[in-house]
Amino acid sequence: MRIHNIVTGELESSLSVSLLNAGAHPNLDPEDVKPFGFRNDIRRRNGDVTSGVMVPVPVWLIEGADKTILIDTGLGDIDEVSTMQSRYGVDFVASRSRDQDLVAGLARHDIKPEDIDIVVLTHLHFDHVGNNHLFPRAKFYVQRDELPQGIAPPSFCMFYYPEYSYKVTEVRDRLVVIDGDVDIADGVRLVKIGGHTPGCMVVMVETDSGVVCLTSDVMYNYRNLELNWPMGSFWNLPELMLGYDRIRREADLIVPEHDWQFHQRFPTGTIK
Prior knowledge:
Elements: E1 2-13, H1 15-18, H2 30-33, E2 39-43, E3 49-63, E4 69-71, H3 78-86, E5 94-95, H4 102-107, E6 118-120, E7 139-143, H5 147-151, H6 166-169, E8 175-178, E9 182-185, E10 188-192, E11 201-207, E12 210-214, H7 222-227, H8 237-250, E13 253-255, H9 261-265, E14 270-271
Parallel strand pairs: 4-6, 6-7, 7-8, 12-13
Antiparallel strand pairs: 1-3, 1-5, 1-14, 2-3, 3-4, 9-10, 10-11, 11-12
């Protein structure tokens, strides 16, 4: 099987979001904990300049199984996202370049939206469900524990927005609600980890490189993996760290979700 990375835009991530407690530790050099691409000149819409990382927002196209599978649907309309987040005091930058269009990204692999059989919604944060409407034939797999926050989030839940619940409800007739680990195709397994969100799951894919784990936001960047240090947005920290242990036991190749360093390690954007 082949796994293709398709970037749908970029989001600003602060150091405290990328690493719990901003990676502060007396035995670690602060420069050594900064994620790939960390910079001090991110300019927000209001003109403020801040430090952080502009992280990619990918989806993952899996080819070679008995079904055509897409992992998440990525970042939706940029203006809608920015307006929505600003209501909650979130001013993080969202952007999309011309070559980060999802339909065009699929076309580079000779795939049209209607060719997708299965969409896996690893969790229901806004940057993972933004293009659900593009896939008219797909069944959408989601963990049962994600639905309450995805549809009617409490005010304290980070990165869920009630204004965005329509992204889930508009495909409700094609939701496949699961509870726990599920095989969705030969060599493709969904593994419920939780931790980051109540029903966050990773995807295990059997390839010639071994078992590849697409971690979703369980591991946000390669620093989370290298330091065994989670990102700053989580629902259940002990559960999340147990998930780190499980991923290390079961996967041969671990791929964090939001890190441009992936493209240095896999210049073609494809894992075979």
